[in-house]
Amino acid sequence: MGANRSFGNMEPADTLYRALLALPQAGLKPLRVSNLWQSPAWPPGRGAADYLNAVVLADPDTVAATEVLERLHRIEADHGRVRDRADRWASRSLDLDLIDQNGLVLAGTGPAAQGLVLPHPRARDRDFVLAPLLEVAPGWRHPVTGEAGCDLLAGVRAGLAAGGEARPLVDGRGDWPSPGAVA
Fold first, then answer.
1. pTM recorded for the entire structure
2. In this structure, which topology does domain 2-168 adopt according to CATH?
3. Where exactly are the structural domains of the chain?
């Protein structure tokens, strides 16, 4: 999950917290929650605000991956997300991605996939996904390549410019769950 734009009177951290609370109502029970992480917006140089990110390990209760994604998109819409196909890198009030579902591999084609690619095709290249993911699933391995998440993260960070990496946000927010805590 990520956000870098306010929604109504809610700052991005508040929106992420509200989205976390909306997951069980959508049938997606949070099991573990990462820290909040802060990362520069992509691509660099656009002048967009930094993102706040987190990863939630949720139990989809035997829901198909395409249905999980539809539920995530409904939560996004409820929190002001407007998908701008003309600007892929537009700021977002809320961005909820399905990174992995029990090692399922979907190529985005065929009736079962309905355009969904799993694991998320760019997760392996994003430290703001991998770092919080490893907080909630320290032994995670990429379902296609078998690479350890910690090795992927090290490789991504080796290629980042100084100051470009995601970092845990420690600001005393009392309402954000402790890392690993059940929400």
1. 0.88
2. Alpha-Beta Plaits (3.30.70)
3. 2-168
